[in-house]
Amino acid sequence: TGKSTVFEQLQQEIPKGLILLLQVPGLGGKTIARLYNELGIENVDALKEACLKGMVRNLKGFGAKKEEKILEVIENMSGGMSRFPIAMVLPIARYIEEELAKMPGATSFSRAGSLRRVNETVKDLDFIIATTNRNEVRQAIMNMKNIKTVTNQGETKISCIFSFDIDIPVDFRIVEPEEFATCLHHFTGSKEHNVRMRQMAKERNEKISEYGVENLENGNRVTFSSEEEFFQHFNLPFIPPELREDGEEVNRIQELGSLISLSNIKGDLHMHTNWSDGRGTLEEMVESARKKGYEYIAITDHSQNLKVARGLTEEQILKQREIIREINEKYDDITVLAGIELDILADGSLDFEDDVLKELDIVIASIHSGFNQDMEKMMERLSKAIHNPYVHMIAHPTGRKIGIREGYQVDIERLIEMAKETGTILELNANPNRLDLKRDHLVLAEKFGVPIAINTDSHHPDQLDNMEIGVAYARKAWLKKETVVNTWPLSELKSWLQHKRKGI
């Protein structure tokens, strides 16, 4: 029927803020239930207040140290959610966009602000709507579901608090169609980008506003049919939103053609199936990749140590390799590489011996445990993996989760130097919860000439779509397409993988 009365009843019974508490490391369902039942804690803010008052430590099984740890984690969660991780707001933004697409009177619309620039965190959501019937659009906005509070309602702006698993501010700007392009540019930002553009306008005796570009001599205002046309007015190519950060992008326009773009991607080298903790079969993942026109993919289920993810034993991984060979005989438009996401264990050893790894086409190694070890120990673990000739790539190299944890201690410059020395690929994990390596690290990797793979780490066929956000984030770091190994033809990629195994 598309509905479940049990599910709907549970939605009513369970405070929405409790779901968000599941993102606090160290808090599971049972612990959260105790906090709720014994202290009445329903959200992150209430938990923080209880910790500050010393109430949590008095619960059986908690204590002062655990209370301090919880408080520390909350403080790291983007200032107690004064800003929201991008992964948290993307589903909300997509829901609103679906509603706007059905809205009568809305001739065009777009997200704006820091989300459009693919920032890691946002403080609110912004949408620009073009219409010739503002009253109709305003009424349609007011009738949208999930609006908890309307904080401002004017002729051209409506501000609301939308309530989902989180309460998030959303601003709607309602403009005439001819004002849409400049309004979108203005509210996309960043502040520094807009300042630089206004400086360029001033040099031409012009003034930019959200309504158009005004000639200061005669007062005439010019509007544009698109942002592309707006930039052309200033003799600039279109500058994608993700690059509009510090104003320097205006001085780097000659580099735009060399940057990575989604159309350059030929494959995805990190994904999971239901052999381990994925929710799609091997065949479903392959079919989804074929629909994207990929030349190749790598199946990289977890290794045996990660029991919570049903990691594969030696026998299972070799059996999967044989099935992948059969799949490759079936298709002539895609090649499936047999791989593994190999655990780097707490003592620095790897989860499989070399005699297993050598049977696989690609090996990616990653850390899933021992996050509290000091930097020296962490670097020792990473060094052992990088210097193993059978390890081709380090996945999500710092272990961070945006707004939840900073990740383990890594000497990032040393990691990049080791990757360069050994020909090891470093990953930009495109999962919006991770985006790891982060922007500054990608800039450094590009400088050192270290190869990068943009991978989705998909656990479901739908998550292959995260490649788009991964590429956009790579562009924020001005990553060039030749730096990204999964833009290479399969023959070139295979040559690189074989070169690592020969030793460097």
Structure description:
With 504 residues, the chain is of the alpha/beta class. The chain contains 20 helices and 17 strands. It is globular and about 75 Å long. The termini are far apart.
Mean pLDDT: 94
Compute the CA-based radius of gyration. 25 Å
Helix content: 25-40%
Strand order of the largest sheet: 11-12-13-14-15-16-17
Q: Please report the number of helical segments.
A: 20
Annotation, overall tally of beta strands: 17
Form type: globular
Q: Characterize the biggest β-sheet.
A: 7 strands, parallel
Low-confidence stretches: none
Q: Tell me what portion of residues adopts beta-strand conformation.
A: 15-25%
- Taking the alpha carbons of the first and last residues, their distance comes to 59 Å
Name the structural class: alpha/beta
